[in-house]
Amino acid sequence: MTITEKLIEAQKYALSIRPKIGGFPVLAEVLRQAGIQNNHWSLPSCQSIYLMKEGSVVQQVTPLVSGTHEIPKFDLEALITAIRTDQEGRSTFPEFLQSAWRAGVVEYNTDLSLRKVTYYGVNGESYFEEYPAVDVKR
């Protein structure tokens, strides 16, 4: 199995068992168990890079914007609202990405071994949260 196939299979499995509320830690743990160490998202391009033990994989989904746009100012309160809305199962992942972008997030990084997500604004602003460990059996 290639590392690309390994990533896709892990994502499919995680989505099949992920609860609607508080589902991110389940997704993250399944990815960690599949050998993914780090996940880096670039907004608004929606490019996601997965660093794995065997190499790296890039996934490109539909960008949030096209053309020329002003980057929103980093708004910590709006970012935290976007995160909580997602954690409570009240938004889809694309809606979360759009909300994070409107809150001035230009990239975020998930360290799967430390269970930490750090969000960054264009001027060096940052905010991080740790997420809980979960037990996922395969």
Overall description:
- The longest helix has 15 residues, at 3-17.
- The protein has a single domain (3-130), classed as YdfO-like fold.
- A six-stranded antiparallel sheet has the order 3-2-1-4-5-6.
- Strand 4 and strand 5 form a beta hairpin.
- The chain has four helices and six strands.
- 23% of the residues are buried.
- It has helices at 3-17, 24-33, 76-87, 93-102, and strands at 36-42, 47-52, 55-60, 107-111, 116-120, 126-130.
- By secondary structure, it is an alpha+beta fold.
- It starts with a helix and ends in an 8-residue tail after the last strand.
Core attributes:
YdfO-like fold
Examine the coordinates and then state which fold CATH places here, giving the name of the CATH topology.
Answer: YdfO-like fold
Mean pLDDT: 96
Helix residue percentage: 25-40%
Q: Report the structural category.
A: alpha+beta
Q: What is the strand content?
A: 15-25%
Distance between the termini: 17 Å
Pick out the low-confidence regions: none
Outline type = globular
CATH superfamily: YdfO-like
Biggest sheet architecture: 6 strands, antiparallel
Q: Within the largest sheet, what's the order of strands? A: 3-2-1-4-5-6
Count of folded domains: 1
Q: What is the total tally of β strands?
A: 6
Broad CATH class: Alpha Beta
Order of helices and strands: HHEEEHHEEE
How large, in whole angstroms, is the Cα Rg? Answer: 15 Å
Number of helices: 4
The CATH level-2 architecture is identified as 2-Layer Sandwich
Short summary:
With 138 residues, the protein is α+β, with helices and mostly antiparallel strands. It is 34% helix and 25% strand.
